[in-house]
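INFO  loader      accepted 1 record
INFO  loader      residues=624
INFO  predictor   begin
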Amino acid sequence: MAPRGEDPAQVIRSCAKTRHWQACIQTLASMLVLHLVPSIYSFTAAVTACSTGCMGRGDTSFPPRCWPWGILPDTVSYNAVLSAAEHSKQWLIVFPAAVLDADIRNRSRAHEISFTAAIGISDKGGGWQLAPAAAVRHAFGQSLPGSDELDCGHWRLRAARQWQAAIHLLAKVPGADVLSFNVALGACRDALRWEVALALFSNMPEARATPDVVTFNALVSQCGEGLEWEKALCLFSQISKSSLQRDTVSYNAAISSCGAASQWQVALALLSQMAAAKLPVDEVGCSSAISACGRGQEWQKALHLLREGMPAAHVRPNAVSFNAAINACGSAGRWEDAVQLLRLMAGAACAPDMVGVNAAISACEKGRQWQVALALLSAMPSMRLIPDTVSFNAAISACEKVGRWPVALGLLVAMTEARAWPDEISFSSAISACEKGFQWQLALRLLSDMARVAVQPNAISFNAAISACEKCWEWETAIRVLTEMCDMSSSALVPDRVTFSSTISACQKGLEWQRAMCIFWGMLEEEVVPNDVSFGAAISACEASLQWQLALQLLSIMPEFRLAPNHITFNATISACEKVGLWELAFQLLRDMQTMQVTPDEISFSSAISACEKGESSLRNGRL
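INFO  predictor   done
INFO  writer      dumping tokens
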């Protein structure tokens, strides 16, 4: 309550200047007790105080019962409300809707500040979800389209449609300026809507809004994020054609666009142009160029830019720069360089972060250096980093690649203890490790454990489990796992050629040629295109069971699937003929191999010779 003898309005204005929003509210409440009506200026000052004080940080003690006045808001008060909503996502939730939903008989002219602040709420995300409809109507003349978004006097905007709100608002304001368009473009960027951003840009001439360099920079960036690097460069070139000066942000956005599309040559050329234009080269542009080199498998150029190019430009590499170079080395299998860069980060007064360490572990995984990967994982706490799921997954995969299944399983257990929850990648890598170690029972146990911890198995998980069964001659179990996979209702989980090929191979090892052929024909019915491995497994199943006619049939239909018979399929078919003494067919297949430029090997000739021997033996027995 205001001290006795002081003007309440003056107290409110003083408290607003010092951001004492609680005192503002108490003074307004005291005016209610004294039957005094605050002016619109007092009301606006109180709203401003609430938007910049503790109320803007989520305090919900704002008492709605203190606002029964029939105050007619003006443009300034609505701007204050909208700006408050832009800065805060909490206090409008408890603000009385009756005040802002009152009929506005003396509506002020729509104001560009209102529009820009309103779109700013949408751009920042979440704040629009309880934005009062009357405030929008006041600023923009009428309610926005989409009655399904109106609820109890509030315009509720779903987070996924905030970019649509920005577009609707832009369409409702006559004479929107370039600032308004730029804010709307920002909303489109957050929603990854580069097509909508380009459509907005094309409408700017009609609205008589001249794009500035901020407009072009936003468009270049959005097209780059949408992997439309050619469109990004086209917009980049339009900057100078529009009599505007490109700045560092312009070049950085263009370089980043090239980086995402692996256009490393263009990225490096832009970096050189940037220096030639005497614009300050910064770590953002250099990091994007390093990333472009990495994506283009040019790890040497990435290292050169980090170690020599950046110092020459008087740019100190940051964590992003180092991480991009580590990724470049990792992609090229240069695990030693990746680990060395991680060590150099500390010497460059740039502490390694989670991204860099994970990238280095992944580089070791690709280089099959499981021990180094484990050492990096163990060293993370000393770097004040807590290993996450990505860290453990890379280490488990490193162990999987060299068949270290006991270590992989140990890491899977350690993940839970470290509260880095395993995902489908963790389990799939561990199952693959068991498969390489011929541990089919452990592989199946892990597959069943995934459901227990609410992790959805993927195709890799099932394929690894089936392959583990195939390696251990467990054909019945392999078929059961395939059946379980087919019975799962997930549309994202369907058997692929690896699934079918592994199961066919398991049946071949179990001399179950009929089941193998049933799975092969089922593969075709499911419109899964077989590869040479699929045909090789099916023909081998026929060969082991003396089904030479089927073997020949399978070999003959391979070209229908744009597959050329190879050594495996030819040798299996020759062997099928050899087992029943069909030496003429065996020699014909040898000639076919040479015709198709498949050089016969020792197995090919041995099978053909054996076929001749069996044929000769049959002739002798016939004469006797």
